[in-house]
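Dear colleague,

Following up on yesterday's call, I've attached the two folding results inline so they're easy to grep. Please treat them as preliminary; we haven't cross-checked anything against experimental data yet. The first protein's sequence and structure tokens come first.
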Amino acid sequence: MLQVKGLVVSYGRIEALHGVDLEVPDGQMVSVIGSNGAGKTTLLNAISGLLRPKSGSIVLDGRPLPSAAHLTVAAGIVQIPEGRKVFSSLTVDENLTMGAYRAHRTQSREIRIRIYDMFPILKERSHQAAGTLSGGEQQMLSIGRGLMSSPKIMLLDEPSLGLAPMVVRQIFALIREINQRGMTVVLVEQNARTALALAHYAYVLENGRVVLKGTGSDLARNPQVEAAYLGGKG
């Protein structure tokens, strides 16, 4: 289980997270929704070791996480960044290799086969430069690259951003499949309706604070959430 307690993160004198608490049970999908600037990406970056918290704790399976990104990956947490951020000049296969820098060669080969089975379009494009892929294909590649490290937990930051609706549905179906195969997922997503529909549990962040939490279905029926994030009249 991943546990975040009293997390405070600042950018200089500006405090972005104000004592955030969050729990992610093994095997579940936990969604975090909120408006732009609420602190969602800051939360993921703190968990993944890209930002050093001012105070609070981040604990995985009873052990404090190191505040360095490469050590966080070694501990079993990988982040799929907003905007995909593939290595555009490298091929699809080379991008996957970059995600497997910690893995043994045999293990890497086995994981790559599973990823190509999950994303057959990537196998077709394996020798193609990543920068020439469509947005949806790049998102699949970004997810596949993260899976190459055999993580316990995947942090997904706005996976639907900039994608066509039909592609978004495909990406979310893949994320659901990954979770159903046993991967623990933390999903930050602008599409609140879908994020809540996928989630076992969810949190609402506003101005760096958790203001609501509950099961995805309960929050989807919450009048405040409906008015603010689901297009309801409140």
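Below is the second protein, in the same order (sequence, then structure):
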Amino acid sequence: MLARLAVRLGRSGEPGDESAGGFDWGSRSEHCRMAWLRGVFLSRGSLSIAGGRTHLEFVVPADGAPRLAKRLADAGLPASWRVRRGLGVVTWKSAETVDLFLRRIGAGPTLLEIEARQVARSLRGELNRILNAESANVERTVAASARQLDAIGALAADGRLAEEPPMVRAVAGARQETPESTLTELADRLGLHRSAVQRALDRLERLALETPREPVSPGAAGGVGRRLS
């Protein structure tokens, strides 16, 4: 197999060089072209999949880079090229293009490794997104619970909480007993709809922001009554 591949590649020719027995790209069939590209990759290529990025490049003589890039484009695998330190560098940075190239040249194990890393990276990203969302939800719940407890304490201190309907007082008591509970947990515990619990807590916060009524003394009330009579 290696001997046949060496003949196909043209042992004495560089990638893109048709002289000295080089590979005649134009007259070859698809499987021969892919075999040639596989040989170029094994001898001139490098693949990096570190840091969550895929990068494949071929390092060839400077004058061979544009010809190799043209052949890759002919194969439906367009690549960029440049000259670096006197050598031509043909590059892919698209994970999709690299995957397609590896699949077409039969590099199954490498392709599987890349796909496994992509899946792992995707899972890590999704897990981080879920954890961040959960953390934000917890922070919002803690902040809301602290506000509600302050409101309930203020209303209880000036007697206004006792004037509220039984359902509102029940929600206030449940919040004081389990400050860490979510609205859904409070609703389940009290046998109420979540929206009813939310409205009760919103009412308590709103009332706590209002200025407490000044208590009216019995004497003052009597005096008013006498003046009115």
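For the second protein, one point worth flagging: The first strand starts at residue 45 and ends at 48.

Best wishes,
A.L.
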